Amino acid sequence: xxxxxxxxxxxxxRDVVATLRERGHEVRGLSRSAPGHxxxxxxxxxxIADAVDGADVIIHAATDGRRDDTATANLLRHVRDDxxxxxxxIVGVDRVPLPYYRSKYRIxxxxxxxxxxxxxxxxxxxxxxxxxxxxTVAPVGLxxxxxxxxxxxxxxxxxxxxxxxxGERVELEDFAGPEVRSARDLFQVYLKSAGRRRPLLPVRxxxxxxxxxxxxxxxxxxxxxxxxxxxxxxxxPPR
Length: 239
Ligand SMILES: NC(=O)c1ccc[n+]([C@@H]2O[C@H](COP(=O)([O-])OP(=O)(O)OC[C@H]3O[C@@H](n4cnc5c(N)ncnc54)[C@H](OP(=O)(O)O)[C@@H]3O)[C@@H](O)[C@H]2O)c1
Description:
The protein is of the alpha/beta class. The chain has helices at residues 11-22, 48-52, 68-76, 99-113, 125-135, 153-166, 183-193, 208-214, 230-235; strands spanning 2-6, 26-31, 38-39, 57-60, 84-90, 117-121, 141-144, 147-148, 173-175, 181-182, 200-203. The strands form 3 sheets. A 7-stranded parallel β-sheet has the order 3-2-1-4-5-6-9, sandwiched between helices. Strands 7-11 form a two-stranded parallel ribbon. It has a two-stranded antiparallel sheet with strand order 8-10. Helix 5 (125-135) crosses helix 7. The protein is globular and about 55 Å long. The chain binds NADP nicotinamide-adenine-dinucleotide phosphate (NAP).
């Protein structure tokens, strides 16, 4: 089987490429410029036809956070019906009215119409660590007053590989981390692992986006399939 991975240099994409290669597959990673990958730009369309050509499966994990509708439309233009397209989405894109989530929800619908598969993941451990780091720089740290269910990208990558190998379309599946925990709790875990102490204050923002997070629209406790905890992620070698 030959697979194309868009977003191959990204946080998730790196693990997807490594996992697929470990499992013996031929992998073509797409990047705009990184050495060792096929070069192409989903926004301009340059290089996409060649990148897609000959792939049995396309795992679409590229994002620039703003223009993914256009990027995905450019990709879809070259995907044939006999190629299995697997899209990486986010748990709650249909519930949290963040513009980025809305765009991903629209993309999901396009992928579905084309017979593709969709895997929705919860927030990656890396993202939680980045947020915790950024919000605890000042002498008094901040945390968003809601819960998070972080998941490890290595486990999301493994599930994507299984879907690719299975050959069957997975219409829509949630893949969530093992634990729903308060952001405060997770930030304290981060501070402890970094050997730092900070008082932490909650941040609450008026409006429907924050309300949706607060009511757990981005969580999937019934799909807590991941096993790697935030503590285990922080203790593992940097990836
Ligand atoms: N972060 C999270 O917590 C989280 C949670 C659930 C789901 N997701 C989803 O998982 C997917 C991967 O997220 P991530 O955090 O791993 O992304 P990331 O680290 O930000 O990586 C983005 C990737 O997209 C590529 N890219 C951006 N613009 C491109 C363009 N115009 N043409 C071609 N490639 C382009 C980049 O490649 P180059 O720069 O090398 O070109 C890079 O490999 C996304 O769909 C995201 O919505 C993320």
